[in-house]
Design goal:
The structure is a homodimer of 342-residue chains.
Chain A: E1 2-8, H1 25-28, H2 31-41, H3 61-71, E2 74-80, E3 90-92, H4 110-123, E4 128-134, H5 138-149, H6 164-177, H7 189-196, H8 199-213, E5 217-221, H9 224-235, E6 242-247, H10 248-251, H11 258-264, E7 267-272, H12 282-288, H13 298-306, H14 312-325, H15 328-331
Parallel strand pairs in A: 1-2, 1-4, 2-3, 4-5, 5-6, 6-7
Helix pairs in contact in A: 2-3, 3-13, 3-14, 4-8, 5-6, 5-7, 5-9, 8-9
Amino acid sequence: MRLVLAAGSTRTAGIEGISAAGATRELMAHTPAIDAEIVEYGRPITADLVPVSPTGCPTPAVITRAVREAVGFEFTVIDAGLAAETGAPTVDVDARPGRDVRDPVAVPDAGETVDAAREFGGALPDDELLVGETIPGGTTTALATLRALGEDVGVSSSLPENPTDLKRRVVDDALAESGVEPGDLAGDPVEAIRRVGDPMLATVAGLAIGAAASGTAVTLAGGTQLVAAAALVRHAGVEVPLSLATTSFVADDPNVDLDAAAREFDLDLTITDPGFDRSDHVAMARYVAGEAKEGVGTGGALALADRSDASMAAVRDRIEAVYDRLDVDDISSPTGGASDGA
Amino acid sequence: MRLVLAAGSTRTAGIEGISAAGATRELMAHTPAIDAEIVEYGRPITADLVPVSPTGCPTPAVITRAVREAVGFEFTVIDAGLAAETGAPTVDVDARPGRDVRDPVAVPDAGETVDAAREFGGALPDDELLVGETIPGGTTTALATLRALGEDVGVSSSLPENPTDLKRRVVDDALAESGVEPGDLAGDPVEAIRRVGDPMLATVAGLAIGAAASGTAVTLAGGTQLVAAAALVRHAGVEVPLSLATTSFVADDPNVDLDAAAREFDLDLTITDPGFDRSDHVAMARYVAGEAKEGVGTGGALALADRSDASMAAVRDRIEAVYDRLDVDDISSPTGGASDGA
């Protein structure tokens, strides 16, 4: 079992109020690079910096790392357009950081990245793959991509109050600036990514198509961003079996109808509740309060833990251990103030 | 426990008769990229190509992968100047392929690579590191570097008959073209690498210095190329404890006095005999005949196996299993003819 993490960036994350994947917008650029290091090494190695939301909710990389320590799995990071250097080893798929989704072209190299990721996915020797993502601002590009494909699916948020009005305005602008009406790019997934997507979507869609075509069982490990990736696979006319594994936090989000999405894109759905309500630890309590919800393959990792011999209580203990090792209070305490979510 | 593999290239490998790390000189450019894939995934993924010597001796990556499957360890590849694309995830240390050692400057970026590798080594969270290499032609650049430092240490070869006369001529030319007399660069390891070394040496020397300085126990996993890396560390004035773990094939090489090297550079020496003489399998028999001897961290991996619960017989069985999975006969049978070694 291997978790492949597509770690990338989009300038869309720089829009005020759009993402909670970092204490500040400046720090957010480092989040995917450091998420990869946390899952790979157990802690950040290029900077003394732990990605936390403005309210102190730690990155879901902590959960995924905890599951890796508890049950063990292979882990491979793809550079899906990182904007900051990472000390984690990465596979190259010709991806560069995404532009602002409101630019006329958001992902100039979408086609090259899809092709390179498809080739890599087809070459991996594994019987089973989990595919996760880390890209701040990614739910907005996911929503824009779904709209371009003509798919009416809501998206989740890393913020407790989803800034849906803001996202809708940004997506409306993105489609207008790219000259795309909703549904215009149905059946043309590469062009949808190129105009209004992000390099993570290019990477995951390509990877899933390539891996599934070679007989690998592919589980998209994440929330609505991975639903958008699934939509892209289906709009490519690819009928392979696909699973989606996500957390109960995404499933409980009223903005999201996972069952409808699963039906629409023929996804085998697994939802895992890690029982964080039984813990007062900050690494878990903020999730119960509706923050973060998903990311860095968490839903897939938790599903793996659920079918392993490890108890969810042991996973929660391990989450505390990973978090405590990070010394979050010493080195990256929140910059103060609650998130306003918009 | 983590094995870090510095995978790089030098145009020195293109000199006729200098290396057996590939069936032909053209294929040799791919050897380090594919070695990394074999240890990472269990088989090549970017090309149906298994590095074998001209006589069919498979790459030592097969042994290292077998030990990884038998006893388990973390594995991280550093791009130490790869000339071909690899599907293995890599860490970036600003290394580029090395030039021909006979060029006036062999490694223009030696200083930058040493610095980046030192920083990476210092940041790794592990208590213990094994550091291995894969770079065809590397024993010649190692010999040139040792000569520039004024160290009188012989080097081994991947060929059964070490082409020592050829190497000596190439090294003489290399020093002359770089304007270096033997011993001129004692105490100036970065300059020695820049003039007559290779990017693997820059990477491993920097990594070892950075890791050891941060309290990590460092074992150089390999033969005389790793002895050259140790010499570079000592010529940087760094007194940290260092171990060298290599195979009995290197220890048995009459061109090499490992005990003298260990004394000279204050290395704690471990030699492991994997008992290949008890097997007729091609993946082991060619080693008994004196080919390959080392590489891709094999000596360190075997030392790890030796101190684990796994028996060496189980490791040998696993080597057969890894080799058989590669379908060497189907996809990369030797191009015919025995190696002439010079």
